[in-house]
# Entry
Amino acid sequence: QVRLKESGGGLVQAGDSLNISCTDSGRVVKGYTTGWFRRAPGKEREFVAAINWNGDSTYYGDSVKGRFICSRENDKKTVHLRMNSLKPEDTAVYYCALAKEYGSGWPTWGQGTQVTVSS
# Structure
């Protein structure tokens, strides 16, 4: 059974915004950090964003900094990624992952959601 499930992906136009979410169906362990990664066809996996358990620390990859916003609702066991000013180069499969803390490794992954940005 997959513990993390991403949702909200789809096809949008350049300049549009899109929200994707990651819901944890497992037993929640307080203190975990949730991250977002993406993989575009023919490219390496890329770090996108991360947010700590309290939501007071966020981290962003250089390519999305200033455009994407990561937030969380712990009562709903859900982390959101608000993607603004989308570009065709943001097209990828987006995955969420869990870590004990930022920088410690990501042992738990979702199956991904496709985001496609047309020019």
Residues 33 and 45 are 18 Å apart (CA to CA). The chain has no helices and eleven strands. The radius of gyration is 13 Å.
